[in-house]
Amino acid sequence: MDNYLKMIGQYLDDIPLTKEPRNLYEPVAYCLANGGKRIRPVMTLLACKMFGGNLKEALPAAAGLELFHNFTLLHDDIMDDAPIRRNKPTVHEQWNANTAILSGDVLFAISSQHVSKVPDAHLRPVLDLFYQTVTEVCEGQQYDMDFENRHDVSEEEYLEMIRLKTAVLPAACLKTGAIVAGAPAADQELVYRFGELIGLAFQLRDDWLDVYGDLEAFGKKTGGDIVANKKTWLYIKALDKADKQQQENLIKAFSDESLEDDEKIRLVTSVYDELNISDDAQQKMKEYYALASVKMDRIDLPGEQKSELIAYADQLLNRNK
Amino acid sequence: MDNYLKMIGQYLDDIPLTKEPRNLYEPVAYCLANGGKRIRPVMTLLACKMFGGNLKEALPAAAGLELFHNFTLLHDDIMDDAPIRRNKPTVHEQWNANTAILSGDVLFAISSQHVSKVPDAHLRPVLDLFYQTVTEVCEGQQYDMDFENRHDVSEEEYLEMIRLKTAVLPAACLKTGAIVAGAPAADQELVYRFGELIGLAFQLRDDWLDVYGDLEAFGKKTGGDIVANKKTWLYIKALDKADKQQQENLIKAFSDESLEDDEKIRLVTSVYDELNISDDAQQKMKEYYALASVKMDRIDLPGEQKSELIAYADQLLNRNK
User: Fold this and answer.
1) Domain A1-161, second-level architecture
2) How far is B128 from chain A (nearest CA, A)?
3) Domain ranges (residues) in chain B
4) If you measure CA to CA, which chain A residue comes closest to B129?
5) Cβ contacts (< 8 Å) between B143 and chain A: which residues?
6) Full DSSP string of B145-188
7) How far is B57 from chain A, CA to nearest CA, in Å?
8) What is the pLDDT of residues B198-249, one digit of tens each?
């Protein structure tokens, strides 16, 4: 794993960003220096390796997909008016919104450039997948924004939103690695679905951690989604299961601007607890994991070739702790 | 020409945009319905035709380049806080800034998708050119924003800014047509330079028209750039030629917020007139046109094959009136 991270880090560091116009490229370098777990490019390399491909052929596209992910964070942070990303001020805070828009645009262009650096034989399918994924991620972000103003979002709609906003990208990262390795079409599709289901489980885990996670381990203040009135899977599921009184309490807590943060978190969490939402969330994650495992089992490779990717997914979902 | 416009219009109309999420795709459709002169895709088709290529093979990329141009307008209008585009409210005015950012992002993705629909043999060079162009257009926009806060922009810097912001795109449109037609590398380069020089002349003409153009013919109020404190070639050239008193008058007119629009236009234009800036601008356009003609002459094709593109460039620069 360290080796993968080193390859990716080295590749990203070598992208020339200390050039003119400074006001365009400095914010891009600032985003990238911020690090992150590099989950997506690691997935591309793991899938390439699993299917016996040449990692060097997949590396530029892996890095390109990480750059694309950073582009989405940059623009999403403007739209969500988020002040902090990875413990540093966001680009629109550190500079301004115009700088964040334009630096994001050029980062998108740079990401596409690197994604396209696959061998010619794989260029067309990698690009088609990339543009489809970009389009879907934009659709997911739009649904997320639309849902802020709706009070009748169903669980199904929520799951489709997070599928688009967060799950298709890891899926595409895995499939890109598979394409570059020359995997059969059926296996490309299976690894895509595996990634999508792991991505869904990962987002549910994120929703769950925000309420039930440990501040120290997670590095985020617990309850941030509740304070921000973010409609997570927990909230939507709770609203769905709640009786009239509990529904009123939830909606009131989310709309009452006079509430102190701690009190609001306590109120909402108490409804979640009454309804066993934490168990429901863990159950749902397990379901997704089981479905993902079925996809993985059907991939036509010896078990030992799959173990590294499976172990990585387990680690992401914290299943080994 | 009508035939080219019809092909492009038909292709753009067939892109499915009446789909969910509506808040994402409706603004994209709104931009495209707004029309425009379709200069860039026409250039791609003209270059393809000139080099004996198949127009159908160039059409998707031509349309993709027009979509990219529309994407840049959408995001630039947010950054410039422009209320009107082609006689209709801009997207961020009609909806809001977040909608304009995200619809722009998806429009960029859609544009790339169509640019990539060239025959496999031409995919790599077309993409490389496209990403290089996108990056340069972002750089040009950044320089343009940087120049707003500077009072020492040289003519050379200004010309490099408009080269990046506006001239490389028509250049890339022509070269894309040439690539798809299988033109020799030397001719691809020549037609690129032709497009760049015509693009520079076209932007100077735009700067000139803003002050000396006819409201009725041009559809814009004369002096808009002056009212907006936009540093055009005319302003930079005037500052360069002016004596101390004239320099003070210019800078004062641009910084005095108490001035009525008409009075400001009158003051600035009178300095331009004293310095013969209008003649200088026309001279500069002629120079660019002459340089462009040299490039065109060196393209290894019979004159009659070049005449359609030359006539189109003449028409753009209004040389036949």
Assistant:
1) Orthogonal Bundle (1.10)
2) 7
3) 1-167, 184-321
4) A113
5) 21
6) HHHHT-S---HHHHHHHHIIIIIHHHHHHHHHHHHHTT--HHHH
7) 16
8) 999 999 999 999 898 876 665 666 788 898 888 899 999 999 999 999 999 9
